[in-house]
C-alpha cells in the first residue's frame, strides 16, 4: 500500500466522518444532549483534521482545527449548543465538506464563506466561552484568513517545542561552545509503572554526547525489606552535548513528572574542531550537593562517577527495572481479568463489516443474473424432455430454483444501502436555499435507514435536490406571509422513505401554499400545452408541472432558473424505473410521491404475447388482468375505445398498435386486458393477445447495448433463450394519452 | 527478532499510515480500531510497545491505557499516545492514565520510530 492509496482511504473516511458529523449536529439541533453525540461529532472533525495533517492539507487542517476547538467548548460544557450555535456549526460542516472535496478533486472553495465561518466559530469559542481561550486556537483577527499563519498543532513537537537545528553541526565555525549539562535524576516508582525505563533514558542521554554517570544505590534496603515495585536508585549524569539543556530535557520529556529531575548547564567549554577528538571529554564533575532534595551523600561516589562507563550504570539500572518487572508480573490479577472479560463481551456486540470494491459486487450480480437465466433455461428444457412426470430431477430443479432466488436476493442485499447519505445531503440543500431565499425551513427526514440499490441512491440525489429546491423556493411562503396566514413562520419540508410492496416510496411534502392551479393552468395555456377551453381535473392540472419547459415562477430566480424543470426530474425518476406523482392542497402544501424499484437488476414481470412478439410487463404496474367481453367495450371518437369495469370506464390501450407491431386495431375480445396503474393515478387497460406466465427476469439495459427505444424500458433473456422486451408502461400510456391531449411522443417501430 | 507494535486508532487513514510506516521500519504490526478491541487483541498479541489514539468510540485512549495498566501481564508495556491533542491538560490525563510517552499527529515516520525506539530496549 502506498501513500496514494492511503489518501484514497482518507477521503473515503472523510465522507463517512462528514456524514457522522452532520447527523450528529442535526441530532443536537433536535435537542439531543447525549454526551456521546457530542463526542461523535467532535471525533469526526478530529479524525478529519488528523488525517488531513498527515497529508499536508493545510486548508483543511486549519479549518478543522478552529471547528474542533469550538466543538471542544461544547464538549466541555463551556458552550451551550443553542440553535444559533448549531446553525454556524452546520454551515461549518458544509464548508468542511467543500474543503474535503476541494482537497480531493482540486477546485476551489468559497474562501470568504470559510473565512466568515472561521470568525464565527472563533467568536463562539472565545466570546461565549472565555475559559476556552487558552485552547490552541489561532488568534482571531490576523490569523483567521491565512491558514499559513495559523498555528494548529501540525508541526507541534509536543508540549515543549525544542528549538535546535542540525545545521549547527556542520556549519558552525571552529571554536564554539559545547555546554556540559548536569542531570540529577531520581525516578519515582510511577515512572516504571508507566512503562518508562531508567535504563532507556540513560541510553538516550548517552547518545547526546559524552556522558558520565554515577548511580546512587544508597537507598536500596536489604532484600527482605525491599518492595519490588519501589524505585530505589538515583543517578547523577553529566553530558557534554551540542544540544544543551533543551536536548537533555527532551530525553526526559516522557518521564519528567515521574521523577525528581534537575537539569542545569554547568559550564561552557570552548571546543575546537580538532579538540573534540583529542581532549578527554570527561572532567571531574563538581556536584553541588546542596541542590539535591534527597540529601543523600554522593561524595563517596564522586570519583566513581567520573570513571564508571555508562555501561555500568545501565547495567545497574537494568537490574533495578528487571526487579520491578518480575514483581509486577507476580502480583494479584483478579480485578484485571474481570475488567477485560467485561470489555470482551462488550466488543462482541459490535457489528462486523468488510469493505468491498463495487466492481466485484457488480461482477457477482452479473454472474448471478446469468445463473438465473441459465437455471430457467435448464428447468424449461427438463420440463420439455421429461416424459415420465415426477422425476427426482424435477425436485432437484425446484430446489435449485429456490436456491438461485435466495442467492440473488442475498447478492442484491449487498448492493442495498440506506438512503441516509442522500437524505443528509438534502439537509444541506435545504439550509443553503433557506439562506438564499430568507425563508426559515425545517427539514424532517423519516425512514433514513430504508435500503435500496446503490445505483438508485446515486441517481436519486439530483432529482431530489431539485425537488427540494422547488419545494422551498416555490412551495413555502415567506415567514411574514406564513405568520399572517396563521402558520408557523418556520416552514416544514418532510422527506420520507419507506418500503411498500417491493418498491421504495419516497415522499417529499411541504406545508407551503400548494400548487396555484389558476396560474399553472394559465401558464399551460400560454405555452400551448393545453387548449384554452380544456376541461381538466385538479389532478390533471397539478400534473402539468411535469411537462417540458414548464415553470410557474414569475421571475427566473437564482435557484430554479437553472434550466431544469420538473420534466427533467420526472424523466430521471422514470429512467430508474420509477414513477412520480403530485398531490396538492391549496394553502396546505404539496406532496410529491416517488415510487422506485428496489433494484435495477431484476424485475418480476408478466410475460405476454403481442402480435407474435413476447413482451414483459412489470408486475408492479399491473393491478389486475381480465378477459374483456364484447358488451363491455365501448367505442367513441374515431379510434378511442373504453372498457367498462365494475361501473367505471377505463381507456383501452392497444399495445400492439402503439408499438407499431401491427397496423390495425386488434379485437379486444380476442385478447386479454391488463389493468395498469400509471403515474398520476389514472388506470388504463392495456390490451395484449395472451398471457404466457409470470416470472422473474434479469434486466439487460437496451441503452447500454443498443439505443433507447420509446415505449420499451429494457430487455431480458427468457428461459428458452429468446430475447424479450420489457414494456415501459408509463411511456405507452403517455403515448396513448398523447392522442387525446397532445401528440408529443412519436414512437419508433420496435421489435 | 522483530519488535511487535500494537496500534489502536479508529481512523482507517491513520491505521494504514501506521501500518506502512511501522512495516517499513521493520516492525511487526498488529492493529485495533478502538480501546475495547485493543484490550481484546492485547491478550494474545504480546506486543513490545503500544501506540494508541485518544479520541475513539466505545473506549477511548485514556480508558484503554488504564485497562492495559490494570492488566497484570501487560502493565509494564510502554504505551505511546498518538494524538492531535497538544494541550497540556490532555497529555496530563494520558500520563495519569499511565501513558509512557506521546507523539503528536500528524506524525512523521522518523518521529514515530524515534519515539518507539526511545521507550523500547
UniProtKB/TrEMBL annotation, chain B:
Residues 4-120 form the Response regulatory domain. The keyword tRNA-binding does not apply. The modification 4-aspartylphosphate is found at residue 53. It comes from the Bacteria. This is Two-component system chemotaxis response regulator CheY. Pfam families: Response_reg. Keywords: Phosphoprotein. It comes from Shinella granuli. The keyword Kinase does not apply. GO terms for biological process: phosphorelay signal transduction system.
Amino acid at each position: 500500500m502506498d501513500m496514494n492509496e492511503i489518501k484514497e482511504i482518507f477521503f473515503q473516511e472523510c465522507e463517512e466522518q462528514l456524514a457522522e458529523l452532520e447527523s450528529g449536529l442535526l441530532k443536537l439541533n433536535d435537542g439531543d444532549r447525549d454526551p456521546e453525540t457530542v463526542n461523535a461529532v467532535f471525533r469526526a472533525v478530529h479524525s478529519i483534521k488528523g488525517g488531513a495533517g498527515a497529508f499536508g492539507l493545510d486548508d483543511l487542517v486549519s479549518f478543522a482545527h478552529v471547528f474542533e476547538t469550538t466543538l471542544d467548548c461544547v464538549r466541555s460544557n463551556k458552550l451551550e449548543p443553542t440553535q444559533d450555535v448549531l446553525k454556524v456549526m452546520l454551515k461549518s460542516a458544509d464548508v468542511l465538506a467543500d474543503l474535503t472535496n476541494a482537497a480531493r478533486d482540486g477546485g476551489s472553495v468559497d474562501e470568504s464563506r470559510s473565512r466568515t465561518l472561521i470568525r464565527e466559530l472563533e467568536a463562539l469559542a472565545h466570546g461565549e466561552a472565555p475559559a476556552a481561550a487558552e485552547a490552541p486556537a489561532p488568534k482571531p483577527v490576523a490569523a483567521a484568513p491565512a491558514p499559513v499563519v495559523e498555528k494548529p498543532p501540525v508541526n507541534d513537537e509536543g508540549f515543549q517545542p525544542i528549538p535546535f537545528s542540525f545545521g549547527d553541526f556542520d556549519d558552525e565555525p571552529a571554536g564554539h561552545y559545547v555546554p556540559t549539562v548536569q542531570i540529577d535524576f531520581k525516578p519515582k516508582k510511577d515512572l516504571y509503572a508507566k512503562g518508562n525505563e531508567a535504563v532507556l533514558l540513560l541510553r538516550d542521554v548517552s547518545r547526546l554526547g559524552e556522558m558520565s554517570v554515577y548511580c546512587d544505590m544508597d537507598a536500596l534496603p536489604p532484600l527482605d525489606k525491599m518492595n519490588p515495585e519501589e524505585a530505589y536508585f538515583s543517578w547523577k549524569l553529566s553530558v557534554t552535548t551540542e544540544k544543551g539543556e533543551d536536548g537533555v530535557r527532551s530525553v526526559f520529556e516522557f518521564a519528567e513528572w515521574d521523577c525528581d529531575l534537575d537539569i542545569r548547564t554547568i559550564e561552557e567549554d570552548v571546543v575546537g574542531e580538532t579538540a573534540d577528538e583529542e581532549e578527554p571529554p570527561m572532567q571531574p564533575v563538581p556536584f553541588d550537593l546542596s541542590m539535591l532534595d534527597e540529601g543523600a551523600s554522593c561524595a563517596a561516589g564522586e570519583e566513581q562517577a567520573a570513571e564508571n562507563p555508562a555501561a555500568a550504570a545501565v547495567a545497574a539500572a537494568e537490574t533495578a527495572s528487571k526487579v520491578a518487572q518480575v514483581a509486577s508480573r507476580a502480583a494479584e490479577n483478579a480485578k484485571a481479568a474481570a475488567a477485560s472479560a467485561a470489555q470482551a463481551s462488550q466488543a462482541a456486540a459490535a457489528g462486523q463489516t468488510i469493505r468491498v470494491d463495487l466492481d466485484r459486487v457488480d461482477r457477482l450480480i452479473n454472474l448471478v443474473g446469468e445463473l438465473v437465466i441459465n437455471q430457467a433455461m435448464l428447468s424449461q428444457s427438463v420440463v420439455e424432455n421429461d416424459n415420465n412426470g415426477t422425476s427426482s430431477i424435477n425436485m432437484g430443479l425446484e430446489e435449485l430454483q429456490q436456491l438461485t432466488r435466495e442467492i440473488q436476493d442475498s447478492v442484491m442485499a449487498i448492493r442495498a444501502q440506506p438512503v441516509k447519505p442522500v437524505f443528509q445531503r438534502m439537509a444541506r440543500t435545504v439550509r443553503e436555499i433557506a439562506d438564499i431565499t430568507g425563508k426559515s425551513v425545517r427539514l424532517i427526514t423519516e425512514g433514513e435507514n430504508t435500503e435500496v440499490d446503490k445505483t438508485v441512491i446515486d441517481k436519486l440525489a439530483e432529482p431530489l435536490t431539485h425537488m427540494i429546491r422547488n419545494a422551498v423556493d416555490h412551495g413555502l411562503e415567506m415567514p411574514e406571509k406564513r405568520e399572517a396566514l396563521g402558520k408557523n413562520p418556520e416552514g416544514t419540508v418532510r422527506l420520507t422513505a419507506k418500503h411498500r410492496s417491493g418498491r421504495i416510496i419516497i415522499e417529499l411534502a411541504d406545508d407551503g401554499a400548494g400548487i396555484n392551479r389558476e396560474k399553472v393552468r394559465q401558464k399551460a395555456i400560454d405555452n400551448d400545452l393545453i387548449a384554452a377551453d380544456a376541461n381538466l381535473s385538479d389532478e390533471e392540472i397539478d400534473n402539468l408541472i411535469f411537462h417540458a419547459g414548464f415553470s410557474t415562477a414569475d421571475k427566473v430566480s437564482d435557484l430554479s432558473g437553472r434550466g431544469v424543470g420538473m420534466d427533467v426530474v420526472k424523466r430521471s425518476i422514470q429512467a430508474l424505473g420509477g414513477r412520480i406523482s403530485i398531490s396538492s392542497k391549496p394553502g396546505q402544501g404539496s406532496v410529491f410521491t416517488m415510487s422506485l424499484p428496489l433494484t435495477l437488476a431484476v424485475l418480476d414481470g408478466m410475460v405476454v404475447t403481442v402480435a407474435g412478439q413476447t413482451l414483459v410487463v412489470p408486475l408492479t404496474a399491473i393491478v389486475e388482468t381480465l378477459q374483456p367481453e364484447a358488451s363491455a367495450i365501448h367505442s367513441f371518437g374515431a379510434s378511442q375505445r373504453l372498457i367498462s369495469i365494475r361501473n367505471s370506464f377505463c381507456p383501452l390501450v392497444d399495445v400492439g398498435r402503439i408499438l407499431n407491431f401491427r397496423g390495425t386495431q386488434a379485437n379486444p375480445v380476442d385478447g386479454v386486458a391488463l389493468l395498469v396503474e400509471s403515474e398520476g393515478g389514472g388506470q388504463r387497460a392495456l390490451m395484449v393477445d395472451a398471457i404466457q406466465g409470470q416470472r422473474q427476469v434479469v434486466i439487460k439495459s437496451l441503452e447500454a447495448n443498443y439505443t433507447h427505444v420509446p415505449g420499451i424500458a429494457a430487455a431480458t433473456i427468457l428461459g428458452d433463450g429468446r430475447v424479450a422486451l420489457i414494456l415501459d408502461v408509463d411511456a405507452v400510456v403517455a403515448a396513448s394519452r398523447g392522442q387525446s391531449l397532445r401528440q408529443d411522443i412519436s414512437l419508433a417501430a420496435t421489435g | 527478532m522483530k519488535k511487535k507494535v500494537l496500534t489502536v486508532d479508529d481512523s482507517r487513514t491513520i491505521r494504514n499510515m501506521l501500518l506502512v510506516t511501522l512495516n517499513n521500519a521493520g516492525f511487526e504490526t498488529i492493529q485495533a480500531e478502538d480501546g475495547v478491541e485493543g484490550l481484546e487483541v492485547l491478550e494474545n498479541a504480546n506486543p513490545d510497545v503500544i501506540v494508541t489514539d485518544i479520541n475513539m468510540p466505545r473506549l477511548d485512549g485514556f480508558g484503554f491505557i488504564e485497562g492495559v495498566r490494570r492488566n497484570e501481564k501487560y502493565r509494564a508495556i510502554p504505551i505511546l499516545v498518538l494524538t492531535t491533542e497538544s494541550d497540556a491538560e490532555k497529555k496530563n490525563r494520558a500520563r495519569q492514565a499511565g501513558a509512557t510517552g506521546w507523539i503528536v499527529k500528524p506524525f512523521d515516520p522518523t518521529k514515530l520510530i524515534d519515539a518507539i525506539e526511545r521507550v523500547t530496549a
